[in-house]
Amino acid sequence: MKIHSLSRAVMLCLGCSSLSVVAQQNVDTQGASTAGSEEFVERINVTGSNIKGVDLEGAQPLVTIDAEAIRRSGATTLSELMQTIGQTRGGEGSFSTTQSGATSTSTPAGQSAASLRGLGPSSTLTLINGRRVAASSFAAGTQNFVDINSIPLAAIEEIEILATGASATYGADAVAGVINYILKKDYDGAEVNVNYGNSFAGSDEGKFTLNAVWGGEVAGGQLTAFADFYDRQDFKATDRSFSARPLLVNSYSYLPKGTPNIYFFSARDGNEIGAPTCETEFVTTEFGEEICAYYGNEDDYLDTPFESFSGGLIYNKEFDNVTWNTDFFYTRTKSSAFSRPAPINQINDDEGPFTSEFSLDFLPSEVTDPIFDNLYIDPFDTPAGRELFGFSFDARFNTPRTTEVETNAFRLVSALSGEYEGWDWETAVTLSQSKSEQVATAGIYNRYKYHAAIAGELCSSGEIADYDADADTLNCSSGALLDMYNPFLPNDANNEAILAVAQEMPTRDGDSKVYAWDLRASGELFEFNGDFVMAAFGVDVRREEITDVPSENARARFENDYLVDVFGFGSSLSEAKRTQWGAFAELYVPINEKIDMQLAGRFDDYDDFGSTFNPKVALSYRPTESLILRASWATSFRAPSLTQAGVKLRTTTARYDCGANSSVSALYCEGDNSVRSENVLELGNPNLNPEESESVSVGFSFSPTEKTNITMDYWYFDHEDIVDTDMTGVLDRAVSDASLRHCGLVPEGEQGISYDEDLCLVTDAAGLTIEEQGANLTEILDAWVDFDDPRFAELPLNRDHVLLLENTGTQTVEGIDVKIDHTFELPESSITLAFDATHYLSFERNKPGSDEIEELIGTWRYPENIASLSAFWDVDNFFVGVTAFYTDSYKDDTNRLRGREIDELNDLGLLDENELRDVSSWTTLRLSTGYKFENASVRLSIDNLLDRDPPIAYGSSRGFDSINHNALGANYNLSLTYFF
Predict the structure, then answer these.
(1) For the residues of 211-269, what is the DSSP string, one character each?
(2) Contact 271, 303 (CB under 8 A)
(3) Which of 288, 531, 609, 831 has its CA 20 to 30 Å from the CA of residue 970?
(4) Where are the domains of the chain?
């Protein structure tokens, strides 16, 4: 294992101070007790330990965001807040509603997740008051995650982040660490807060929040109740000039929206014919064609409309020597999501659907004559069984795919705690559920009904007419026979009414539950060196269940040739449950007055994949009262998610990397290094191994004065057996394994790659087809080029390749966190400066389908440095401050661009000799100010104060990186709070 020394970490991190950077304000690493108090202070748990009352101040790299820091941030949701925290920035792990979409491959509508160190949301354990919460029933891909939009910000007292392996304490999923959201407790009084924010642009991206908190004595106990309402308008790419249109002319799709091109297959000269009804300017393709093009920006939502309501209570009451504590909250969220209009294919999903030869008759002859002079008019079969004549076209539907999702989530924890012979004990039951309902409301069309409409065979009832061949008539058992739908006739009301009959509204219902019981005890174990060894022991049992069930018309089925009934709208059918039990032990050993040691170990047993044991060792050395040196080592694991274990069939897309494997590049990519995408069917795997991780942390905490704190930590993760599909690897294995090669659809019960059915018409020099063991794929490719004269000299892939989830690879990531804050005391005021930075030393991951290790730091979406710097002036009841947020530069995602886009960038002189470019670094400023009156307070924050556009990213269809950057521009947030 590669571990850098602390000295190297310190030297590298000192270089971070020269960055023009910036940071999260008001973050401290202190525990939550009050020093010097003569009154009894409740012994509490701090995230990272189950031992109550142990002084861990500075002994672990714990980041605490208190209520005042949350208020000063101006954030209105947890998702907004977590986007400003260094440990959750960088990489592709965290996501928000800016990535939401309507298809099965998109982020679930209205949901967000926080990820530590870029390792993914499923590798970050999310806790509320130290206990688990049900994951979203709709997975992100196959990764289950906790939707932080379901956690009400109004109920949060503070957030504790421990960004190091913590399975020895908490069990599964704490590979990258833990984020613990701590709810308000023992609140006394009442407050109402109204918050409104918007951009300074002419478009409306307004967001409104209303929340209330009340606390007081009820029935001899303390009750805290809260309610929160949040509403946000949508934000479209067309609302900003830099994202309204693509940055490159050649970033177009051949499939125009609503105005079809004529497919090259139907043209005598083999070139696409531009849509005669095109409503936009033609573009010139790499083949010299003049066609009507589509740019997805016009239908892109940079943020979707979102609404949430939440409410809850926290109640605690003492009975003699036992305390009863219950916390409950309920959240309902509603959101819409949008994806580009679906492509229109043939019934069997091949390109180039057919339309009648009479489709262009409404146009004048001077337009149609030259077109028909260059057209093949061919026969095609209709859904009713007729043979008509026509030609093929290229298009997508006019309406974006649209879904609406409502999620209802609740969490109930009821606990009893007390003390027995000097030991603190606590036992609790947890019930948590997240239930989502999705319905597609627009842009989804039935493939059979659509093709019936094109052929004039659709009935007004939605059924397909019966064809009487003897009488040559079409008959509807109910409803009337509709006219032929004409895809070339735009903006015609009667024509659009026919299309509306083909619309479908697929649904998706998900349910995720967690039932748990735990028992914990902590106290003094025995005396040692004049002090006491402290210990904690505990057991827990957990039952998890998840279902994700789409309607029948959104499922791929073998008996239907894996064809989903509707165009461009797949789904995931999954159902799984598991029972787990665990036991842990933890020791806190004061070796001497200066050195403390923490030992922890946890055993977990799962009824599906088996058991695992994870230890942790941590040392802290305090040479002086102001300096603590700290180090820890731990192992962690992530159990395969219930979706990964239980998905029965998921229609999705998978990317394969031509640059990762020379065989794949030569056979499927004409030798280039591009990244391609294919439609696949993904299967769960009950035999998956858990992901495993080893983590190391070394650092120090130094407080030279009462007003100065400096912390620095080197951290390292070695993450193995990552679960994913690996299409690059399957393509590579298929070179020598004939069982993975199939002409036409992959047979039911088998796996592998689906090729064009006609590929089996050619053989290699030995007379072997591609399905036979020992076949030479290079020779078969040459034979195919001679046989078919295809546009691209590649083995022709079909559709619906069947891939099994597997433990695909490894990744290691290491870096340095540095944090400095100092308060200058002035007469009747103070100024606080805070600097916070993360420097990534390395992020290595094996390329899909290859043992080759690639370095991600400095590549697309993986900045080397992330930092923030703040200055706040506090005087009496007034504060004002500025925070700068910095994201380092990194490489543009030019690998995903088509050759024509690369050529355009080269012509513009924007690429270096390796055809690469950098996405610029980005620094934004936030102004925060506020004043507290006797019974009220007012706060104002302005984000992106200088209204800086996000850096240009040609590799993104949006023109910028929506994970590391933000397109909103200068925006404000005004908050008014009244205290009763």
Answers:
(1) EEEEEEEETTEEEEEEEEEEEE--EEGGGSHHHHS-SSTT--BSS-BSSPEEPGGGBTT
(2) no
(3) 831
(4) 252-294+345-394+447-502
Looking at residue 482, its pLDDT comes to 97
pLDDT band per the 50, 70, 90 thresholds, residue 966: very high
Q: How far apart are CA 226 and CA 310, in angstroms?
A: 8
- pLDDT of 7 above 70: no
Q: How confident is the model at residue 485 (pLDDT cuts 50, 70, 90)?
A: very high
pTM for this structure?
A: 0.88
**Contact by Cβ (8 Å): 107, 140:** yes
Question: Would you say 778 and 667 are in contact if contact means Cβ atoms under 8 Å apart?
Answer: yes
How distant, in Å, are the alpha carbons of 351, 753, 754, 756, 803 from that of 743? 18, 9, 6, 6, 16
What is the rounded average pLDDT of the residues 643-669? 86
Which of the pair, 650 or 906, is modelled with greater confidence? 906
User: How many angstroms separate the CA atoms of 228 and 701, rounded?
Assistant: 37
> What is the rounded CA–CA span in Å between residue 275 and residue 487?
11
d(CA 860, CA 857): 8
Cα–Cα distance, 287 to 308 (Å, whole number): 50
Other C-beta atoms within 10 Å of 814: how many?
23
For residue 423, what pLDDT is reported? 95
What residues contact residue 306 under an 8 Å CB cut-off, 6+ apart?
97, 110, 149, 230, 231, 232, 333, 334, 335
Pair of tokens at residue 472: 């040559």
Query: Measured at the alpha carbon of residue 551, what is the angle toward residues 97 and 555, in degrees to the nearest 5?
Result: 90
**DSSP H/E element including 824:** strand 806-826
Examine the pLDDT at 458 and tell me if it is beyond 50. yes
Question: For the chain, how are helix, strand and coil distributed in percent, rounded to 5?
Answer: 15, 45, 40
| Pairwise CA distance, residues 634 & 716, whole Å | 11
pLDDT at 111 over 90: no
Q: What is the DSSP letter of 979?
A: E
CB 637 within 8 A of CB 692: yes
Task: Note the residue count of the chain.
Answer: 980
Report strand pairing: 753-755 vs 647-657: unpaired
Structure-block tokens of residue 544: 């998890």
Cβ-count burial 949-964 (b if 16+ within 10 Å, e if not): bbbbbbbbbbbbbbbb
722, 810 Cβ separation under 8 angstroms: yes
pLDDT at 672 over 90: no
User: For the chain, how big is the Rg over CA atoms in Å?
Assistant: 30
Q: What is the pLDDT of residue 849?
A: 63
**Which of 407, 409, 411, 413 lies closest to 432, judged by CA?**
411
Rounded distance between C-alpha atoms, residue 327 and residue 152, angstroms: 13
For CA atoms 336, 339, 341, 344, the dihedral sign is: negative
Strands 354-356 and 922-932: unpaired
Q: What is the distance between the alpha carbons of residues 216 and 220, in angstroms, rounded to a whole number?
A: 10
Tokens 């040559």 identify what position? 472
Residue that wins the pLDDT comparison between 76 and 463: 463
**Alpha helices for 769-850 (secondary structure H):** 777-788
Taking only the tens place, the pLDDT of each residue in 360-370 is 999 999 999 99
Q: How far apart are CA 782 and CA 802, in angstroms?
A: 26
Q: State whether the Cα torsion 767-772-778-780 is positive or negative.
A: positive
pLDDT band at 142 (very low <50, low <70, confident <90, very high): confident
Q: What is the Cα–Cα distance from 55 to 49, expressed in whole angstroms?
A: 11
**Helix/strand/coil for 726:** coil
Mean confidence (pLDDT) of the chain: 90
Q: What's the Cα-to-Cα distance from 961 to each of 244, 600, 793, 957, rounded to whole Å?
A: 15, 41, 33, 9
| Predicted local distance difference test score (pLDDT) of residue 43 | 59
What is the pLDDT, as a whole number, of residue 562? 87
458 vs 321, residue with greater confidence: 458
Cα dihedral 167/170/174/177 (nearest 10): -100
Give the containing element (helix H, strand E) for 498: helix 493-501
